[in-house]
Each structure stands twice: as structure tokens, then as C-alpha cells.
Amino acid sequence: MTLVSKLDGLGTGAWVALAILGFVFWWPVGLALLAFTIFSGRIGCGHRMSRWQDKMDRMCGGGRGPGGNGFWGPPSSGNRAFDDYRAETLKRLEDEQREFKDFLERLRMAKDKAEFDQFMADRRRGGPAGDNTPDVQPQS
To answer: Where are the domains of the chain?
Structure first.
């Protein structure tokens, strides 16, 4: 069994660790190992590049321009009524998310205020929060 097949059996992490060790000991070895792993397809680049490109094209709408396609929004389904409904629903969900975040912020502020008011009340009464100075007896 060769070293390459042993490392293949251990997985991608072994190749990455070996490349890092190569860089640590002598950078040309690390560079050579990195190039070998990339161009042989052991790290996920190379022969898998077309699959990644297909996924990016589907996600970004094939690189089309503005108007609801490409990087400016979700790709068109081909049905304008559905696209309008989807855009309206997404806008409504974004508004609800913003309102919920505002609600959580108000809730946190109210909780913080209640805790601070409790602390100040305990401090005025001379309770446990106000009595945090240690009693030190002078030694004679």
C-alpha cells in the first residue's frame, strides 16, 4: 500500500495536515503538496469545479442582471404572478422579522431595567448587593 493510498484512506484532513506540515518544515514541499492535492481533485477543486459552478448558477440565476434575477434577487420561475406573490411574501416575512427583533430588544431592555431597579432597591435598603465591602478587623 503506497503513501498516497494510505492518505486517501484517511480522508481530506490528512492531505491538509500533510500540506501544512510541508509548509512548516520547508515551504516548497508544502506548496508542491498543496498543488498536488488541488489538481488531483483530493481537496474538492479540480474535477468537482463544474458541479460547484452549476450550483452557483442555479443559486444566482445564471448571472443574469437586475430585475429579480442574478445577484439582485431570486431567479424567475417563469410565472409572473407567482414571482409577485413570492416577492410580497418575502417582504412580509422580512418586516415580521424586523418587528420581532425590535420586540426582543424592548424585552431585553425591560428585563435589564427591572434588574437594575432591583439592584438599586437592594442597595438603598442595605441588602446583600450594597454590602459587598469586606469587614476587615485591624490587627493589634
So the answer is: 77-125
Q: Which alpha helices (DSSP H) does the chain contain, by range?
A: 3-10, 12-25, 27-39, 49-60, 80-125
Number of residues assigned to the chain: 140
Cell numbers given for 108: 431585553
Cα(89)–Cα(135) distance, integer angstroms: 64
d(CA 58, CA 73): 12
Angle at alpha carbon of residue 21, lines to 18 and 24, rounded to 5° = 155
- Residue 8 has which C-alpha cell? 486517501
DSSP assigned state of 47: G
DSSP type of residue 77 = -
- pLDDT digit string (tens) for 37-48? 777 766 654 444
On whether the pTM is more than 0.85, the answer is: no
